[in-house]
Amino acid sequence: MGWRFSLLKNMQAKWFGAAGSQAEQSTSTSSVAQGSDVVPDTPSAPEEDLAPGAEDPATEKDVRTSPASPPQPPIPATPERRSRIKRRHLIILLCTLLLSGVLYAFLPMQFGRGEEILFRVTTGSGARVIGRQLQEQGLIRSATVFNLWVRLFGAQGGLKAGEYRLHPGLFPHRIVLDIKQGKTATSGITIPEGYRLTQIADTLAGAGLVDREDFLALAHDSSVVLPENSVFDPPTKSLEGYLFPDTYRIAHGMPAIDILRMMLKRMEEQVTPLYEQAELPLRLTLHEVLTLASIVEKEARIPAERPLIAGVFYNRLRVGMPLQADPTVKYVLSPAPVRLSLSDIEVDSPYNTYRYGGLPPGPIGSAGLAAIKAVLEPADTPYMYFVAKGDGTHVFSVTYQEHLAAKRAADAQENGN
Questions:
Q1: Helix, coil or strand: residue 69
Q2: Cα–Cα–Cα angle for 206, 258, 364, rounded to 5 degrees
Q3: Closest C-alpha among 131, 176, 145, 137 to residue 158
């Protein structure tokens, strides 16, 4: 009991000071002296001998059940300490604001797609110029962030020229990747079978892809457009009939010469293998095949009649008979009439197949693949004439007398007789 009392007294002295400890000691002594209500200590049992190295169980129990250290009293808030706390809070606030501002610059201008803008990257433009233009047009928040992404993606010097469809909802890094990968805005353009160069130029210019006059100037100078290893060598130097009619995806800002070369390459890919394998009734050059195919394209309205019409023209060429094809005359007349008059077929032009024998100097339009195949694989037919019935079909004849009768019947049907 004595050791417990000493421990209690030490704890009281620590927290309440020496005065409190002396007061309690006095009280305790008085209580013992008076002998009032103080139960005497029970005599402790005799201690047993412990084996060498063994610990006293009582001591072990007292160590385990000793109370935890009480909390320390708060440190007084001195002016110096308050100043340090304020500086710390200010630094945290500034770092938070700085980080928020940096992250904000990496965000798109708005969330959601927004209105598309056709953004042009000119040839030779660097990342700094492109970034500044993007920021000025409201597509990114920071040109600096744009340049940072350019460096991170290793796109310095690799940003491709062209026109891009961008909107304010794009993240800056997405814009960098699109320009790096050359994902330019494209338009789907369909060139129908039979179109002339002027019609192709009108179609492309109408879509905002080319300047009409610049395109036509190039299209009439094949020496500038055709590469050295091209299979084509048009004697007229015009690319009329050499641009394959098809649907193309053309990038905005694509140079006109590249558009022409793309269409020429499509013609080469489609026609050259067929021409090399064909067994023609007459030895026609590739230029002559395209020329005859352009006439068949204009004459035929029904797919099944294309080989027949090609066969008729082969028969005429074989015997030296003029082709007398209306579309060749219409090619040189402006505006082209629906039906030719007697004065029309008297026009002096090498394209007038009423006055001049053989094929005209070149194609009168871009023949489709079906018309080209019809010329490469014509029908073996005795027909020498054909006349349109007015419903898209034709009446084919062997003799001129049969042809005149068929023509009178077609005229009567057209006039309602």
A1: coil
A2: 65
A3: 176
Return the H-helix or E-strand segment holding 33: helix 2-34
Exposed/middle/buried for residue 267 (C-beta within 10 Å: 0-12, 13-18, 19+): buried
Mean pLDDT of the chain: 82
Residue 281 one-letter amino acid: P
Q: How far apart are CA 357 and CA 353, in angstroms?
A: 6
- Judge residue 401's burial from the number of C-beta atoms within 10 Å of its C-beta, 0-12 exposed, 13-18 middle, 19 or more buried: exposed
Contact criterion met (CB below 8 Å) for 363 and 197: no
User: Which DSSP category does 303 fall into?
Assistant: G
- Domains of the chain (ranges; CATH) run 117-184 (3.30.1490.480), 197-381 (no CATH)
How far CA 15 is from CA of 5, 24, 181, 212, in Å, comes to 16, 13, 76, 101
pLDDT of residue 370: 97
DSSP 264-300: HHHHHHHHHHHHHH---SS---HHHHHHHHHHHHHH-
pTM above 0.70, yes or no: no
**Residue 360: how many other CB atoms lie within 10 Å:** 24
Task: Report the pLDDT value the prediction gives residue 115, as an integer from 0 to 100.
Answer: 85
pLDDT reading at 122 higher than 60 = yes
Tokens standing for residue 275: 């021409």
Find the helix packing angle between 172-181 and 143-152, rounded to 10°.
50
Q: Tell me, what amino acid is at 141?
A: R
pLDDT band of 12, cuts 50, 70, 90? low
Whether residue 375 has pLDDT greater than 80: yes
pLDDT confidence band for 124 (50 / 70 / 90): confident
Residue of 207, 302, 292 whose CA lies nearest to 248: 207
